[in-house]
Fold this sequence. Notes:
The chain is of the alpha+beta class. It has helices at residues 25-38, 80-100, 126-140, 155-158, 169-176, 182-189, 195-201, and strands spanning 8-14, 43-51, 54-61, 112-115. Strand 2 and strand 3 (54-61) form a beta hairpin. Helix 1 (25-38) runs antiparallel to helix 2 (80-100). The radius of gyration is 17 Å and the shape is globular.
Amino acid sequence: MNFLPGHLYHVYNQGNNRDRIFFEKEDYFLFLKKMRKAFRSDCSLLAWCLMPNHFHWLLIINDDYNIDYHTTERTKKLNPLNKKIASLLSSYTQSINRKYGRSGSLFRKRTKAKSLNEQRFLHDNYLANCFFYIHQNPHKAGLVERIEHWEFSSFPDYCEIRNGNLCNINLALKLLELPKTVEGFYELSYKTIPEDSYKNIF
């Protein structure tokens, strides 16, 4: 993951062999606590969703992000946010392993980050489709009857059902040119994403 200042990214990972990464409600809360710490200074979250066996983040890197690569002779180049994400997943894995008496890795080896600033994505509404997909994910997976019923995503915050502050909502509404009214946002959030757009989300 080569994060660059001012760039947008869809970041995601899932459990090894698509196994669960969250086993009970407290696990989700622990992961969110670690997210808040990891993203405190380098980027702004625009949307997020935690699913039983994977997660999605939509984020924008701060303009003043310091690409200060730290290297040794035996390691690849990692910029600061890479290291923080790796630390987040490692710390969470250790907590889960202790809690449930398991061992080994919890996540797939590579966390993927897809840049939304590539030229081919600038004209096909990829940003909006990705944003809505992240929120629709629990509903599409059959976990809930309504998007707003899933507790572990940023959707309730956008709909003012919950007063969460993990996302920079005003920035997201501006970047995506979304309706500023809750009613307008809610209606648009249930729009159907074109099938040929799904392949570009990953």
